[in-house]
């Protein structure tokens, strides 16, 4: 299996359970690429929605994807602190220069003070019926919501105090190196 390489630019493709594309981020720079973890960064990247609408991300973000956990974490670097948008999703796969996952509607928004809120429970229930999510998926997702919340409370993974500094420094270093080419 091919792996993303540090410094390369990849796309991120989000799908729904029915196989339809949900959203595409055009350019994310890989900061770490292993078979289990991909950490990337993007800033003012073009995002295309399933209906063709496009928009640009507003702030620099560090993105964390794992091949074993059913969530991914977007760390948005804003003037008043780091906000985290956590998508309950399938583990990622890397294929054809794109990181791909299935978005399962439930989201957890984490604020700079590490308070958090669970979002889109109604959308999850609606899509669960419409797309016939298997019971096993429902159980996995609920277990992973609990795991994600424990990471937030324990300051693990992207919520660790030094995570943002380490990966934003790596991002700036990679941009400098690419600028010298």
From TrEMBL:
Cofactors that this protein relies on: Mg(2+)
InterPro entries: DUF402, FomD-like_sf, Ntdp-like, SA1684
E.C. numbers: 3.6.1.15, 3.6.1.6
Pfam name, any one: DUF402
Entry annotation: catalytic residues: 23 (proton donor)
Residues annotated for Mg(2+) 2 binding in this entry: 105, 107, 120, 123
EC category: hydrolase
Reaction(s) catalysed by this chain's protein: a ribonucleoside 5'-diphosphate + H2O = a ribonucleoside 5'-phosphate + phosphate + H(+); a ribonucleoside 5'-triphosphate + H2O = a ribonucleoside 5'-diphosphate + phosphate + H(+)
GO MF entries: magnesium ion binding; nucleoside diphosphate phosphatase activity; ribonucleoside triphosphate phosphatase activity
Domain DUF402: start-end pairs: 18-156
Binding site for Mg(2+) 1: 87, 103, 107
This protein's UniProt keywords: Hydrolase, Magnesium, Metal-binding
Keyword Phosphoprotein: no
Role noted for this protein: Has nucleoside phosphatase activity towards nucleoside triphosphates and nucleoside diphosphates.
Family label: Belongs to the Ntdp family.
UniProt protein name: Nucleoside triphosphate/diphosphate phosphatase
Species for this entry: Metasolibacillus meyeri
């Amino acid at each position: 299996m091919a792996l993303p390489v540090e410094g390369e630019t990849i796309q991120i493709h989000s799908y729904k359970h029915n196989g339809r594309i949900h959203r595409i981020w055009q350019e994310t720079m890989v900061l770490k690429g292993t078979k289990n973890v991909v950490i990337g960064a993007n800033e003012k990247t073009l995002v295309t929605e399933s209906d063709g609408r496009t928009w640009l991300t507003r702030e620099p973000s560090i993105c964390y994807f794992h091949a074993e956990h059913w969530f991914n974490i977007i760390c948005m670097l804003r003037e008043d602190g780091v906000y985290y948008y956590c998508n309950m999703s399938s583990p990622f796969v890397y294929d054809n220069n794109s990181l791909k996952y299935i978005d399962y509607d439930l989201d957890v928004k984490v604020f700079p003070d590490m308070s958090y809120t669970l979002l889109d429970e109604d959308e999850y229930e609606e899509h669960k019926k419409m797309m016939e999510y298997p019971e096993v998926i429902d159980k996995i997702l609920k277990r992973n919501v609990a795991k994600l919340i424990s990471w937030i409370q324990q300051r693990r993974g992207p919520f660790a105090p030094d995570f943002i500094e380490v990966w934003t420094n790596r991002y700036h270093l990679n941009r400098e190196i690419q600028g010298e080419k």
